[in-house]
Amino acid sequence: AVGRPLSPRFISIKARDYCYKTYPIRGEFGRKELLIGDIFEEDEIWSCTTCGACEAECPIMIEYIDKIVDLRRGMVDEGMVPQSLQKPLSALEKRGNPYGKMEKKRADWTKALKKEEELEVKVLNKKERAETLYFVDSITSYDDRIQEIAKSTARVLSAGGVDFGILGPGEKDSGNEVRRFGEEMLFMELKDQNTEAIAKTGVERIVTADPHALNALKNDYEGLPQVEHISQMLERLINEGKIRLRDAENKDAVYVYHDPCYLGRHNEIYDAPRAVIDAIPGISRVEMTKSMDRSFCCGGGGLMLFYEPVEETRMGKLRVEMAKDAGATVIVTACPFCMVNIEDAIKTSGLEGEMEAIDLVELIEQHLITE
After folding, report:
1. Is the CA virtual torsion 226, 232, 237, 240 positive or negative?
2. For the chain, what is the domain count?
3. Which of 20, 166, 183, 265 has the fewest Cβ atoms surrounding its Cβ within 10 A?
4. What global pTM score does this model have?
């Protein structure tokens, strides 16, 4: 759709043709060729966002992501890592985040809450305990814009009476993108460090506003307490009456929900975010043609914020056009990676002033009844 060199269908066809030619049922084996370079191009393999759309669409249920990740592991072992990814991967190894920022700054976003609102977010340790761990992850901890999602999450959890805390400097990147970019050993190190840190807190449950962190903690880690996305917790708090919402602020706004790939296709959470939006009295919401398990990827998955593949147009730009065609003026998402890409796409599409993007938890915070 955007002119990237990757076609999952041709990945299978190329592999099939190579096997038939090189290892025939009868006759002599053919000349072996290099998988990367002769059969597949490097950019072809690195272009995959691991969104899962190809697997959802495939009529014969071929699984592509695991095969592409396996190819990447081999490329990493051979030192065939794109230049733009070497710095964030090195930073992840040294600092536990792709930005190379100090660990002690991971909880800096909480300072404004304490100073301006007298809302203190607990940093969990042997003495400081809580029932719920809010796993923030790297992009939400360090990106200036995305820190606003962390602040909104803290405010909403506090308003709902949730006893929560964060790991602060003890938290490392969840490793979701690290694993899918083929750095298995680095992922295992991050997983072990996070698992140990979480175990020491004694929390009963984990919540995160990042679907990529959700996917790693829920599906790639072992032995953790229950892990859920903030949309699931919000739905429960609303249903229990612990969070009350006032009427929609802008009656003229038309909202549309964009399904993040790692919340939807990878973890099958479709209804909770929609139920939370619809709980706002008087809100107007529409659906895009490509939604739920057929949602269109914004292009932000798999460390794509650091790697720009060859493409004719940005995936996020196409997604914004789909929202506009649906009649929406506000795109709601529930993923920090999607937020970065969609906000950027709105700007590059010249739609500032006509359309805006907001995270689900930010939307709920705007409509909280706090009295």
Report:
1. negative
2. 3
3. 20
4. 0.93
What is the rounded CA–CA span in Å between residue 221 and residue 337?
21
- The rounded distance, in Å, linking the Cα atoms of 292 and 313 is 23
Q: Whole-number mean pLDDT of the chain?
A: 92
Give the integer Cα–Cα distance in Å for 68 and 36: 12
Q: How many C-beta atoms surround the C-beta of residue 238 within 10 A?
A: 18
SS3 346: helix
Which residue type does 275 have? A
Q: Smallest Cα–Cα separation from 260: which of 54, 51, 63?
A: 51
Give the pLDDT of residue 33.
80
End of a domain among 64, 80, 96? 80
Beta pairing class for 356-359 and 330-333:
parallel
Tell the burial category of 289 from Cβ atoms under 10 Å away from its Cβ (0-12, 13-18, 19+). exposed
3-class SS at 216? Answer: helix
Task: Tell me how far apart the alpha carbons of residues 53 and 268 are, in angstroms, rounded to a whole number.
Answer: 13
Range of the domain at 26: 8-80
Residue 166 CA to residue 124 CA, distance in Å, equals: 6
- Average pLDDT score over residue span 191-203: 96
pLDDT class for 164, splitting at 50, 70, 90?
A: very high
Sign of CA dihedral 152, 157, 158, 159: positive
CATH number (domain holding residue 216): 3.40.50.1860
Q: Are 3 and 43 in contact (CB under 8 A)?
A: no
DSSP state of 121: P
Instruction: Return the pLDDT at 274.
Output: 98
Tokens of 350: 């010249």
